[in-house]
Amino acid sequence: MTCSAERQTEAARQSALLAALRGAAPAPSARLAEQGARRQLGIDAYRANAAATAERALAAAYPTLQALVGEQDFARLACALWRHAPPQRGDLAQWGQDLPAFVEAQADLDAWPYLGDCARLDAAIVRCEGAADAALDRDTLVWLAEHAADTLRLRLAPAVQLLASRWPVAALHAAHVNDGDAAVAAVREALETGQAESVVVARAGWRADVTPVDAPVFAWMQALQARRTLAEALQRAGREFDFSAWLIQALQRGWLWKAELVDDSEEMFHDPDLA
Questions:
Q1: What does the pLDDT look like over 41-67, one tens digit per residue?
Q2: 7 and 69 both lie in a single domain
Q3: Could you tell me the strand order of the sheet in which 207-213 lies?
Q4: Total domains, the chain
């Protein structure tokens, strides 16, 4: 390059710098314009691929939500969530936990206020199916007859997930899974009557099973999951709770893991609701 050409290049660089400092965009050369166009095509391709990847990742985790809103609207939700809360890790299976709250924040979905909890149930199913396995320790159950209720705890299986909703989330999930007239009719009636549902999600084999439960059972299982003693859990459940019936159901559905003795030296959490 000649000295004259070098001076012209440096002058052009300085002019571009001054223009940038002044807020004016310099006119690009043909080569720069071509490079910019290629770069923009690459960005557009990346965005399109990211949107498709987001949709696939979320569709696997939130099938009920996708069925309720439709594939096109679900794809738009996935793309919007990607922009709002992009993945922070390489594993996309760890992304998407914000979707239930994100759905509830969308004004154009206000007519379907149950969508957020349907998404939470989908997420609970994913957590359940991915949780560690734990075989029932039957030997510890004899302690139920040998020790006082305030010295014992019952531990739920690690896969067990609990969800309380103002909406019939179990019926909505069943309608998606079964896709039959009876299931659709049941969910329509439940929505019309304003039926709320609390559910237990547990694993039957390798597949999650969703079971609606009444308020006493749900309160009892919440207390167990919070590692309260049996005495505290019974107080939380109330007089309508039938322990014998629950124990049979828990054993049949794989809800229960083991009983354990409360160590006298263990610091117990104080629950103001049980005081």
A1: 444 444 555 556 777 889 989 999 999
A2: yes
A3: 161-165, 197-204, 207-213
A4: 2
